[in-house]
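Incident log, structure service

09:12 report received: a user says their structure output differs between two submissions of the same chain.
09:20 pulled the input from the user's history:
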Amino acid sequence: MVKASFNGTEYEFEEGMTILKAARSAGIDIPTLCSDDRIEPAGACRLCLVKISNFAPGERPSCMLEVLEGLEIETHTPELEKAREMNLRMLARSYPREAFEEFPEKRFHAIAREYGLTGEDFASPDGMASADESHPYISVEMSRCIDCFSCVRICDQLEGKFVWQVVARGGATQIVPDSFGAFGDSTCVSCGACADVCPTGALEDRSRIAHGEAESWTRTVCPYCGTGCEMDVGTKSGRIVQIKPSAHAPVNLGHLCVKGRYAHEFVHSGERVTDPMIRENGEWKKVSWDEAVSFVASRMKEIREANGVNSVGVLGSARATNEENYVAQKFARVVLGSNTVDCCARVCHTPTAAAMKMMLGTGAATNSFADIEHTRTFLICGANPSENHPVLGSRIKQAVLRGGANLIVIDPRRTELAAIADIHLALTPGTNIALFNALAHAIIDEGLADEDFISERVEQYEEFRNFLKEYSPEAMAAVCGVEAGSIREAARMYATAKPSMSLHGLGMTEHTQGTESVMDVVNVALLTGNFGMRGAGVNPLRGQNNVQGSAHMGCDPGILTGSIGVAEGAELFSRVWDAPVPSETGLNLLQMIDAAGTGELKALWTIGYDIFLTLANAAETARCLEKLELLVIQDLFFNETAKEYAHVFLPAASSFEKDGTFMNGERRVQRVRKVIEPLGNSRTDWEIVCGVAAKMGFADKFAFESAEDIWNEVRAVWPDAFGITYPRLDVSGLQWNCPTEDHPGTEVLHKDSFAHGRTAKLRRIKYRPTKEIAEPDFPFILSTGRNLFQFNAGTMTMRSGVRAFRPTDTIDVSPGDAEKLGISDGETVRVRSRYGAAELPARISGTVKNGELFASFHDARVFLNRITSPHRDRYVMAPEYKVTAVRIEKIS
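09:34 re-ran on a clean worker, output below:
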């Protein structure tokens, strides 16, 4: 700590703080236009000047100087105040008057008013440049630019896209996009950070211009990916008009991606269904809530009593809150007496949860996103954070570009992070096991294993070493399509430049050996001792906003809330519920679909999940769904499942219309807050489920009055979260384990022991090639995944303005293959597999290799899952979305 005085009063500060930050911490407001906590100081605006009487003569920018022991700092002398006023008046001479009057909240305008400037001090609008409106969300009006360069710095230092360029010098200085023309033609990814940091409105959200300043702001959590970014939502007249990142959120650190910031229009879409509906004779009719709930309750009761408890299934939702998923699984177990309950985690990261629980005792991320800045080596496996988790992707990119961290990317495609990686292992799709066994072999063969960690905390090392003899990098190079030398180089980097953090995505899990692929990631981390410390561990990048929470709340046939086994938790849950926990094995999602096809499953209630559009091998899904006697869809919109097969539609409220919590990919529970009232007659998911439970005679077991009521019951059945209370969450999110109300939460798991004991066992996993191999009739291997501007089934993004960036799905084809096939960029082609066909535009791209293709799956008009295969993971039945043999046909 250091002591320094401000305006004659002594304070104590942490070492390394700038004078500007020190002043703020002491409650002293030094004006500034170019300072922002997210970027490095530049001293460009010359407003934060201070005088240091015992250091050096003259006025100095406080943002550029470190507070030192004994400094005597003056912040608001008459000379300083006069200098600030003169600087402001100089800027005002060339600044448009109408902007000053129209946007009073802008920092430049507010400070100018504090120093006595009025509209008369600003330039008239005559001769001012017209705005560049080529970007869908950000208006550019450079006549308002004061050359603070904040937009340049935040794009470089936070997002890492380098869109804004400074050209010329002195009075001729200009800031232009990297298109050197229209902003809409630039490489901007629309995170909005430049508009956030701009103090003048030269860069401004078009929503602010269209709707005016928001009347109120509410802090909540993003409804998209599993990063869990916090956001401030601005409303006016009951509508969402603008979203900004929460300044000090621990996950996103004042940053949002294009979807979080701009893709909120779906809430007010004219396609929202806000009245309950029942289909009669093929026609939908609006009904009252009482009629809809009574119908669902009576039909479910009839079907269960006639056909047994496993004839009715319930699917929770990754888009619903923890509380709502808890109520859904409790409904299945208490009302229906069945463990036939699941959620969409089954088709994405249930392989991760199963693998990590088997090996470590806990099926969740071992570390925190905050550890990104502590990592020396990143191992990104089958994930594309820049597009699928953009805020985390930016943090990783900055750790590499500015922090000097090492980066290894394992991915068939040349993604943005692969392009800057030290090592890119572009493996053949479906060969994850062969590659990771080769990495493990190299680590042991070259004496890189952490012998101390292994001796203390790892079992079956000798057996594992013997097993790996046939998996040398030299033996596996041809299998993986990766040079042996590159495998060995990656092994050395990961094992020696520690702490090393692995982050994996669906490129690891959505395979027939998906669960085993994650086991192999754990194997490599165990060999190198990359557990129990900051910057290390095994960390899944969860896909949807609450997919971690939906499964963890018990929307899984084998686990109860808190990921406790059904048999293990039966006594506690029975006592809290005052009802027995069913012991009969339930069906998972894929088993439910299979059982519907055989006539064993008669009824299905699916909440916030378009299973027809998103499950692999859509033809088989359709055959099974059409046999159901009762299909209840609970969602915001008529999704594809509802359109084709539903009997009842229950209109749900969006996350902006409810209270509750989400759980992100790093185990952090965060508060979701109601921003607006539910539209029309829509209701929260938990209210709907409780209403059906009451109609079925269980009102006393579902007598919740609020989301907090439900959460308090969650705490009662999940000891490791007992300390996570709503009052604490109103301050900040907390990571479990958090067993008491004074516990700070757990950032790093497995420090001294694993969840199931002191040691973990290495698993010997044999590589088994997928059945989906290229052959003359189907010479290409297709992988599928998301893109930056769309999200999963497109339920929300396809009803938002971000659709303008990527209006439909595309299929990436290498330049070499495109030339052989005679395909031009943008040409619509037919892609055919053994299971079906889809038509979509081709995109010629150097990101894929010859013989390999990549397509997104967001557009129901394309319906890409008509061509994906029926093959499944042998542990948890997750579909193999990542490898399908196909051919491309030109459309005449």
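09:41 both user submissions now match this output. Likely a transient worker issue. Closing.
09:42 reviewer note: The CA atoms of residues 616 and 865 lie 5 Å apart. The two ends are 74 Å apart (CA to CA).
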